[in-house]
Amino acid sequence: MHTGVAPLSDITAVVLTIGEGTTDRAIASVRRQTLPPREVLVIEGVTPFHRALNLAASRVPTPFFMQVDADMALDEDCLESLRAHMRPGVGATVGPLRDPLMGNVAGIKLFSRACFDHAEVPNSISPDTDFLARIERHDWLTLHVLKQRGARSQSHTFGEHRPDFTPDYLYATYYLLGTRYRYLREIQGLMWRLERLRRTRHSLAVIGMIGMGHGLFFRREDDVPKSHAPRQGLEFLERFLRTRGEYPDAHREAGSCLALPPDDMLKRSYELGVALRRASAYPALQRCIRILGEAKSNTSWVAEVGLYHGLLSQSGPDTVPETDREIVSELLR
Fold this sequence. Notes:
- Helix content is about 45%, strand content about 15%.
- It contains 13 helices and 9 strands.
- The protein has helices spanning about 25-30, 50-60, 80-85, 125-135, 165-185, 185-200, 205-215, 230-240, 250-255, 260-280, 280-295, 300-310, 320-330; strands spanning about 1-5, 10-15, 40-45, 65-70, 70-75, 90-100, 105-110, 140-145, 160.
- It has a 7-stranded mixed β-sheet with strand order 1-3-2-4-7-6-8, with helices on both faces.
- Helix 1 (about 25-30) links the parallel strand 2 (about 10-15) and strand 3 (about 40-45).
- The longest helix is centred in the middle third of the chain and has 18 residues, at about 165-185.
- The termini are far apart.
């Protein structure tokens, strides 16, 4: 679907949507730009992501295009600011967005259309970062930019990431983020997100934390739509978060896990997650999260993801499977 505007720039705005209720807001923010795009191209109902973006790139009539997801609301000078950083040899300029859970996140992207002549977005669990790596091998640079020098943190950003934070959205998004972190072997990113989610006051943040820890063990490397995140995990969580069962020693068991070698830490924390599930003890889980969040160890993430993985292992074994232990061993190398 095309909706044209006056040819005022050399940029097309590409809006990717699967019918989210926030789509009209995203399009409206594009139309308010101080540098209006020459055209607005809406790619609707195409999944997964790599197919949608490759299709968009094949239809873009201008030298540059901006990828706008349906859950973004752009500042009025977003397009103008990103375009100012584009120069020959730059394949993409990337600017941070404000996110209610994470603070500042990456981000909004302006692409040079020509870099898609050298590479397509791949069918991988991390298609965007893998694409940027591909074009880098063809000597296209990616610039991560800020809006203005010397500005405060929020002034560096180019808009907002504002999805509808429903339980379904949070679980699916963070479950696949966990899978992505395993694929990228990006443990620092995993730890950063866990910390941010622990600090936020959003009532549903715990769904994201647990989903991400469980998703770390999801064995897929292709581009998976959010609809493929296992629904039974969310259905269980929504019931579990209303439970009030007792497990008095949970916080002590969580603390004792932190003194163990990583392999034993994973085993014990997984078994603790299983025990909390059986006891229907959400308050005890909250105490465990607090204990693990206060740990200063570089390996404390092992205990945290083990806890969440055990909690959601409704039809799984009582102790962590060997294949899952291998995943953590590989990430620790």
